[in-house]
Design goal:
CATH class of chain A: Mainly Alpha
CATH superfamily of chain A: MetI-like
Distance between the termini of chain A: 44 Å
Structural class of chain B: alpha+beta
Largest interface: A-B, 39 and 40 residues
Structural class of chain A: mainly alpha
CATH architecture of the largest domain in chain B: 3-Layer(aba) Sandwich
Helix content of chain B: 40-55%
Strand order of the largest sheet of chain B: 3-14-6
Number of strands of chain A: 2
Oligomer: heterodimer
Distance between the termini of chain B: 73 Å
Order of helices and strands of chain A: HEEHHHHHHHHHHHH
CATH topology of chain A: MetI-like fold
Radius of gyration of chain B: 25 Å
Strand content of chain B: 5-15%
CATH topology of the largest domain in chain B: D-Maltodextrin-Binding Protein, domain 2
Strand content of chain A: under 5%
Number of helices of chain A: 13
Helix content of chain A: over 70%
CATH superfamily of the largest domain in chain B: Periplasmic binding protein-like II
Strand order of the largest sheet of chain A: 1-2
Shape of chain A: flat
Shape of chain B: globular
Largest sheet of chain A: 2 strands, antiparallel
Number of helices of chain B: 19
Number of domains of chain A: 1
CATH class of the largest domain in chain B: Alpha Beta
């Protein structure tokens, strides 16, 4: 009996060993390419490091400077919060709206769904360049369409991304073009809602609005919440569209946090400060996500309790 | 059948392996050289020819050139320097040589020159003093000027003759520039269709205009100035040059050309523009069907200084700390070769750049009057100062305030004060981390 137990134990160890062996390429990659840079950046955030000489430990100085005497830090953070607080709710509203629209049995619906999803497979650089054309004040399609309105109101054509007051909102509008991604998730969940619920509501005389508000939306809250969290994480890292379309301008109107981090590293050659910024961003995203997860139980339908 | 397939596979593998083998001399030490002519770029074959010529004229070293696109090169090199895997020889920008020299990542060129008793030592007399100064740290050279750039005024003679002007009317002062420029402006409805000149178009910068008045961004201790009436006057001159148009109209007009992929000067949308020698290359390559010329950038009417921003690349020998004397000697031989008269002409031809070697470039310019005029202007070019606490002071630090002043969201004095405060704060923060 004892011998059998030993054999089983040896076999289990062997099996574990083989398992680790198969997983080792991934584990090695995780440690070398993930964990090491992660920990190194944490250490570098406490140093003065210009990428030419060795990092020199300076304690919390980078953090103190960023939080107490760097006005651009707060401005870029403010711009990022503005982007997150408007882009995410708008994205959810539009995504859910589109999903409701495309959840009908109309001829050629799969074509419409594909068309709305297509922008998600377009490179963000190509997308930004296309929107530069659309927003162009002199010959852009948007201002061409709006030209009767401008004439009626006797106002100058809007300068969209070139106007400091409109630039952030222009980039948010542009981002909505890719709302087809979340829409697919909403649509999938919508189609999971049992038809019996709608049939019962119809027997009770519920209208389409009533069914949407009382059945569809509550049952969709898990996917809305999922997209909300993903949007938060992505929103705090907004960079590429501003880098390509506005270079952070006009002025610093679209100078987002990640853009400032990039400039601190590349233009100022201050890797220590940039690492500190990255860690502050991580903590911020964690806090906001944790708050959102706390709200989870109040707003998300998680099924009937037994 | 199996034997036939196996034989084909083995032969194929051998053929591919043979094709992959490098044409290196078996006993030669490989010297790494990074450049900006990647495979597929127009200058790739010429650059390969330049490298091959060096490999063929000596036996001891084999230079392996690696070309990167302009947009990838700088970040790759920065990371390579940081990780002590930099190439033996490569280019960087000349204005920040001091940063690398003071951090010990470059070989001392003056020391190599002093120890070199060969016939082909570098002739410093062939290079401009203004560029050599930027390559100097603590009295020694740590790099050599490789290319040279300047900014000049391009004028369209077809458009000049259309309004009854000739080459004699090319403006020399700011007031002449304004008077001549206004003869070309055209507006249809709310849209500009043609413009004489704008001080923000092309390759112009606030500091370039500032230098013409004898003022600078920083004092000798690298403190930001920007708080004098002179600084304000220059900014107001830029903003007010086309005051009959809104900034929205001007930006839309400039951006429209850019987006349509047409050069605003080549397409005869502006009569005059300040740009680098790169525009000349663009016009030549595009075979632009316009008659044009180049002249010094107009200067302020009173006590104006003939000066332009002249950035350029430096040639550097990177020290990865290996202490390999043989490698250093090989890199030095390549370094000298790339700065030789003939190699500089070949490099100018390969890249379309104006190189640092003066007599080589005079020969290269030959009977080309535009290139000769550009070369003459390079003698008046000055590079921007390297500010360790704000290496990108003219870009990421100043530009947002500049655009706010242009857009009118900040007053000119407000923009200057805000930019100065920002730079002072940046300096204080930088010093706190020392």
């Amino acid at each position: 009996m004892k011998k059998r137990a030993q054999t089983l134990s040896r076999m289990k160890r062997q099996e574990n060993l083989i398992g680790y062996l198969f997983a080792s390429p991934w584990i090695t990659g995780l440690i070398l390419l993930g964990a090491f840079p992660f920990l190194a950046s944490f250490y570098i955030s406490f140093t003065n490091y210009n990428m030419l000489s060795f990092p020199r430990f300076i304690g919390l100085t980078n953090y103190r400077i960023l939080l107490s005497s760097d006005t651009i830090f707060w401005r870029s953070l403010g711009n990022t919060f503005y982007h997150v607080s408007i882009a995410i709710p708008l994205g959810i509203v539009l995504g859910v709206g589109l999903a409701l629209l495309l959840n009908n049995k109309v001829y050629g619906m799969s074509v419409y769904r594909t068309m709305f999803y297509l922008p998600n497979v377009v490179s963000i650089v190509a997308m930004a360049l296309m929107w530069l054309w659309l927003f162009q004040p002199s010959f852009g399609l948007i201002n061409e369409v709006l030209s009767p309105v401008y004439r009626l109101l006797d106002i100058e054509p809007l300068r969209w991304h070139q106007d400091a007051r409109l630039a952030k909102f222009s980039l948010i509008l542009m981002g909505l073009w890719a709302v087809g991604g979340p829409m697919v998730i909403y649509l999938a969940q919508m189609q999971d809602i049992p038809n019996a619920l709608y049939e019962s509501a119809e027997i009770d005389g519920a209208s389409w609005v009533r069914k949407t508000v009382s059945i569809t939306l509550p049952l969709m809250t898990p996917s809305i919440f999922f997209n909300f969290i993903m949007g938060l994480i992505g929103g705090f890292q907004v960079f590429t569209i501003a880098y390509i379309m506005t270079s952070g301008g006009p002025g610093r109107a679209t100078y987002y946090y990640a853009y400032y981090l990039f400039d601190t590293m590349i233009s100022d050659q201050n890797m220590g400060m940039a690492s500190a910024m990255a860690w502050i961003l991580l903590v911020l995203v964690l806090i906001v996500t944790m708050i959102a997860l706390r709200l989870n139980r109040y707003v998300v339908y998680l099924g009937e309790e037994s | 059948m199996r034997t036939i397939i196996a034989t084909i596979l083995i032969l194929g593998t051998l053929a591919i392996s043979a094709g992959c083998s490098r044409e290196e001399k078996s006993e030669a030490l490989t010297i790494q050289f990074w450049h900006l002519n990647p495979v597929g770029s127009p200058g790739f074959s010429q650059m390969r020819g330049i490298i091959n010529a060096f490999n063929e004229r000596q036996e001891a070293y084999f230079v392996r050139g690696t070309g990167f696109s302009f947009w990838d090169y700088w970040d790759k090199l920065s990371v390579a320097i940081s990780s002590r895997t930099a190439p033996d020889v490569g280019y960087r920008t000349i204005d920040d040589v001091v940063a690398r020299a003071s951090n010990g990542v470059l070989h001392n060129i003056s020391e190599l020159m002093r120890n070199d008793t060969s016939q082909n030592n570098i002739d410093l007399g062939e290079f401009r003093e203004s560029q050599l100064e930027f390559a100097t740290w603590q009295g020694d050279l740590w790099a050599m000027p490789f290319s040279a750039t300047t900014r000049v005024l391009y004028y369209n003679l077809d458009m000049f003759s259309e309004v009854g002007l000739t080459e004699a009317d090319v403006p020399r002062t700011w007031s002449e520039l304004h008077r001549v420029a206004k003869m070309f402006d055209r507006v249809e409805g709310n849209t500009i269709t043609r413009l004489g000149f704008d001080p923000t178009y092309g390759n112009t910068h606030y500091h370039g205009w500032l230098w013409q008045t004898g003022l600078d961004f920083f004092d000798d201790e690298l403190n930001p100035t920007l708080d004098t009436q002179g600084h304000l006057d220059v900014l107001e001159w830029i903003i007010g040059f086309n005051s009959d148009f809104s900034r929205g109209q001007l930006t839309a007009f400039g951006e429209a050309s850019e987006m349509l992929g047409i050069n605003v000067f080549a397409s005869e949308r502006v009569a005059m523009i300040v740009d680098t020698d790169g525009l000349y290359q663009t016009l030549k390559q595009a075979d632009a069907q316009i008659t044009y010329g180049v002249a010094p950038i107009p200067v302020p009417d009173e006590d104006g200084i003939r000066v332009s921003w002249g950035s350029g690349f430096s040639l550097e020998m990177f020290d990865n700390g290996a202490g390999d004397e043989f490698r250093r000697t090989g890199a030095w031989e390549l370094f000298k070769y790339l700065l030789e008269h003939d190699a500089q002409i070949a490099l100018a031809d390969a890249n379309g750049w104006i190189m640092g070697h003066r007599s080589a470039m005079m020969e290269y310019a030959g009977g080309d009057p535009i290139l000769q005029a550009i070369l003459e202007e390079i003698d008046y070019a000055v590079d921007k100062v390297f500010v360790p606490y704000a290496p990108s002071w003219h870009g990421a630090d100043w530009f947002p305030y500049y655009t706010e002043a242009l857009d009118g969201t900040l007053t000119p004095s407000g923009a200057l004060a805000a930019a100065r405060a920002h730079l002072l704060q940046k300096r204080a923060n930088w010093e706190a981390t020392r």
